[in-house]
From TrEMBL:
<dbReference type="Pfam" id="PF20511">
    <property type="entry name" value="PMI_typeI_cat"/>
</dbReference>
<keyword id="KW-0326">Glycosidase</keyword>
<keyword id="KW-0378">Hydrolase</keyword>
<comment type="similarity">
    <text>Belongs to the glycosyl hydrolase 1 family.</text>
</comment>
<feature type="active site" description="Nucleophile">
    <location>
        <position position="356"/>
    </location>
</feature>
<dbReference type="InterPro" id="IPR018120">
    <property type="entry name" value="Glyco_hydro_1_AS"/>
</dbReference>
<dbReference type="InterPro" id="IPR011051">
    <property type="entry name" value="RmlC_Cupin_sf"/>
</dbReference>
<dbReference type="InterPro" id="IPR014710">
    <property type="entry name" value="RmlC-like_jellyroll"/>
</dbReference>
<feature type="domain" description="Mannose-6-phosphate isomerase cupin">
    <location>
        <begin position="680"/>
        <end position="749"/>
    </location>
</feature>
<keyword id="KW-0624">Polysaccharide degradation</keyword>
<dbReference type="Pfam" id="PF00232">
    <property type="entry name" value="Glyco_hydro_1"/>
</dbReference>
<dbReference type="InterPro" id="IPR017853">
    <property type="entry name" value="GH"/>
</dbReference>
<dbReference type="InterPro" id="IPR049071">
    <property type="entry name" value="MPI_cupin_dom"/>
</dbReference>
<feature type="domain" description="Phosphomannose isomerase type I catalytic">
    <location>
        <begin position="474"/>
        <end position="542"/>
    </location>
</feature>
<dbReference type="Pfam" id="PF21621">
    <property type="entry name" value="MPI_cupin_dom"/>
</dbReference>
<dbReference type="InterPro" id="IPR046457">
    <property type="entry name" value="PMI_typeI_cat"/>
</dbReference>
<dbReference type="GO" id="GO:0008422">
    <property type="term" value="F:beta-glucosidase activity"/>
</dbReference>
């Protein structure tokens, strides 16, 4: 869970949502010019965008309805000061003040960003951020903002993502103003931008009408370690704060844009590597840039994996084939969220806000009139769970702003990317709340309680079987948490976890069933030769004679066998004395009861029942989770040159005399109802069913857990392929199970308490 005062909000920028009005008095921005040059996807522009300047009242009401309590937004520098300096457009001041008042009317705390790339074209004509006077321009603008809004707004952010607007706008030319300046010029520009930040902080504090809190919001992809090893962690940290990018992409750097602000100096590695490109950097500059701040903002969307190679040098790991991507093609890497936050807080030790995070999806209004965006919900759940983990591990994160509330004008991509949790039809301006907005509302209302990190993920537990080579053939333990064979989850949220670990650490997955250990064991027995003649004790006897172990009640389903197959089930002695005499004389043929069986037979084996599986049979066995077996006879076989151990005395103690009537413990199941849960046996230890699925079949899992084994055919379970030989566990409260295909399954569960 998050701290009680954690701030949950959404974020946007002025240019991306506001639109224009011929009467608004605003000036031209570099993005207006960029659009006029045809540099936006599909030839689009932001003249309308989301028409927020005319619809902000309904937009803030919509935020209130969705439970939003904080809003990070920007004001448009060129709208407020059309020439960038000098004259102030009072219409803009009135507009933004009314916006802030409307936010507060709807219970929304404003977080105002001074600069989210709305650079005045009039100042660009004077050289833009490369002009040494740009810090003065920005300071003057910050003064106007402080004088105009600080009585209504407590939180201010100076700059948004300098890595982007410096690098993409002026080095690679992908963003406005679309320039490709020299590397030397870009280092000068970056220095000017950071000085502008410092001047803005001074102006904000000087002219604010009350005490305010000020932050700064850089960005970058986050390096994260391949493993939790100290070597990999150090390698990832080295890359994150190091200088591994090629020169033409040097601005994608964390340390260069954050060390001066929060630590008061440029990173030594960068100073040495880029010394031929650097401008004059004075002590006065560094003092200015490192003005005290109240918090650190950080925009994080994704990252990349790093490991430690030879001599601890970082290795950039390839992404997995078919890795998850957003609609924008960005990798989905919640690991980067956790490690990035952790690394940043450890280095800069400032209270943090995640000022942007979200994803673009291929969102459409469906036939039911709604926008279903499960991918975004999954993304946000993973990232917010990673954020909580970072907080739990010590990072002081004060809030989270989801990017973004409304689908908007996504810079050079125009209207081709949808990041919003509210769908916007850009022709009609109709807003449609997406499923993710309702999901996020619950997250905000519960302070993160509804995140998967705080809930049991009730996924199907597909298990890797344990293979055992035996003297007589093979065993495959398909569902087991026994110390002699503990199955591992092979995929999904719990991948790599042992079944015993889940049983102990996450009892809710199993209905909080009151048992020390997972109570059942399901195995497939492939008998190449006859198994020993054996018997199992009950709980009382095993508890007294086997160090408190459970006894062993089991049942068999004959998966396959020869036409003349048989099993040993019970014996022919009428009294204990007769039994002891037969055993003493080795009269096994006279003593043992051999019963013919066929495929599909089901047999219950109670404790005390003499039994043996004969060679040529394949049996699916469901049993108590116990490995206590007493050997009565083993045909004189040896193992490692020695006869296998027999347990005559204990066998004599526990054998039931006389044996049960076989008719009560055996039935054939080949003609049971299809698409039905056919009960084969139900006792105090387990209930076992056979399911024969013909096309479609839906059941409800209402037990503490349910084991399933596919014994024939293949099909789908809740859309996932299953086939003969698969074993899995359905956790408690799993709900409806949809089966599709043609297959047979054996299911088992403990009795409801």
């Amino acid at each position: 869970m998050f701290r009680d005062d954690f701030v949950w909000g959404v974020a946007s920028s002025a240019y991306q949502i506001e639109g224009k009005d011929i009467e608004d008095g605003g000036g031209k921005t570099i993005w207006d010019t960029f659009a006029e040059k045809g540099r936006i996807a599909d030839g689009q522009n932001a003249k309308a965008a989301c028409d927020h300047i005319h619809r902000y009242k309904e937009d803030f009401a919509l935020m209130r309805l969705m439970g939003v309590k904080a809003y990070r937004f920007s004001v448009n520098w060129a709208r407020i000061m059309p020439e960038g300096t000098g004259t102030v457009n009072e219409k803009a001041i009135v507009l933004y003040r009314d916006m802030i008042l409307e936010m507060k009317k709807n219970g929304i705390e404003p977080y105002l960003t001074l600069y989210h790339w709305e650079f005045p074209q009039a100042l660009q004509d004077k050289g833009g951020w490369l002009n040494g006077e740009s810090a003065d321009w920005f300071a003057d603008y910050a003064r106007v903002a402080a004088e105009s809004f600080s009585d209504l707004c407590e939180y201010f952010i100076t700059l948004n993502e300098p890595q982007c607007f410096v690098g993409l706008g002026n080095l690679t030319g992908e963003h406005a103003p679309g320039l490709k300046l020299s590397v030397k010029d870009i280092f000068q520009m970056a220095h000017n931008v950071l000085k502008a930040h410092g001047r803005a902080v001074i102006s904000l504090r000087k002219y604010a009408k009350r005490p305010i809190k000020i932050g700064y919001a850089p960005t970058c992809g986050m390096a994260y370690p391949k493993t939790d090893s100290e070597a990999d962690i150090e390698a990832a940290k080295k890359v994150l704060f190091g200088f591994y990018n090629p020169l033409e992409r040097w601005t994608w750097n964390v340390a260069w844009f954050s060390d001066p602000v929060f630590l008061g100096h440029y990173p030594e590695e960068g100073l040495n590597k880029y010394k031929e490109y650097l401008p004059e950097i004075t002590k006065e500059d560094m003092k200015l840039i490192s003005q005290p701040l109240d918090f650190m903002g950080q925009n994080i969307y994704n990252g990349y994996m790093v490991s430690a190679g030879a001599d601890a040098e970082p290795v950039f790991e390839n992404r997995k084939p078919g890795y998850m991507k957003t609609a924008a093609g960005w990798p989905v890497t919640p690991e980067a969220f956790y490690w990035g936050i952790r690394f940043l807080y450890e280095r800069y030790e400032h209270p943090m806000y995640i000022t942007e995070n979200g994803m673009s999806c291929h969102d459409v209004v469906s036939l039911d009139g709604r926008v279903h965006d499960p991918n975004r919900i999954y993304f946000l759940d993973m990232y917010l769970s990673a954020l909580q983990k970072a907080c739990d591990d010590g990072a002081d994160v004060r809030g989270y702003f989801l990017w973004t509330f409304l689908d908007n004008f996504e810079w050079d991509k125009g209207y081709t990317e949808r990041f919003g949790i509210v769908h916007v039809d850009f022709e009609t301006q109709k807003r449609t709340v997406k499923d993710s907005a309702f999901w996020y509302q619950k997250i905000m209302e519960t302070n993160g309680k509804e995140l998967s990190i705080n809930k049991l993920m009730r996924q199907i537990l597909f298990l890797n079987p344990i293979y055992k080579q035996m003297v007589w053939g093979d065993e495959r333990w398909g569902v087991s948490a026994h110390p002699h064979g503990d199955c591992e989850v092979k995929e999904g949220f719990y991948k790599g976890k042992k079944l015993s670990e889940l049983w102990k650490k996450l009892p809710g997955l199993f209905g909080n069933y009151d048992a020390q250990n997972f109570p059942l064991l399901v195995k497939l027995i492939d008998a190449k030769q006859d198994l020993s003649i054996q018997v199992h004790p009950d709980d009382a006897y095993a508890g007294a004679h086997e160090n408190g172990s459970l006894g062993k009640t089991e049942c068999w389903y004959v998966v396959d066998c020869d036409e003349d197959a048989s099993l040993v089930i019970g014996h022919n002695a009428r009294t204990k004395e007769q039994m002891e005499e037969m055993v003493k004389k080795g009269e096994w043929e006279k003593f043992l009861r051999e019963v013919p069986v066929r495929r599909g037979d089901f047999i219950q084996i109670d404790p005390g029942t003499v039994h043996s599986i004969k060679g040529g049979l394949m049996i699916l066995e469901t049993q108590q989770s116990s490995d206590i077996t007493y050997r009565l006879y083993d045909y004189g076989r040896t193992q490692n040159g020695k006869p296998r151990k027999l347990h005559l005395d204990k066998s004599m103690d526990v054998i039931t005399v006389p044996s049960h009537d076989i008719e009560n413990d055996m039935e054939n199941t080949l003609d049971l109802n299809v698409n039905s849960m056919n009960v084969l046996v139900s006792n105090k230890y387990y209930t076992v069913w056979k399911l024969e699925v013909a096309k479609d079949f839906t059941i409800s899992q209402d037990y503490p857990f349910m084991n399933m084994s596919v014994i024939e055919g293949d099909g789908l379970i809740n859309g996932q392929l299953i086939q003969k030989g698969d074993h899995f566990v359905l956790p408690a409260d799993f709900g409806l199970i949809e089966l599709h295909g043609k297959m047979q399954l054996i299911a088992s569960a403990v009795k409801l308490i």
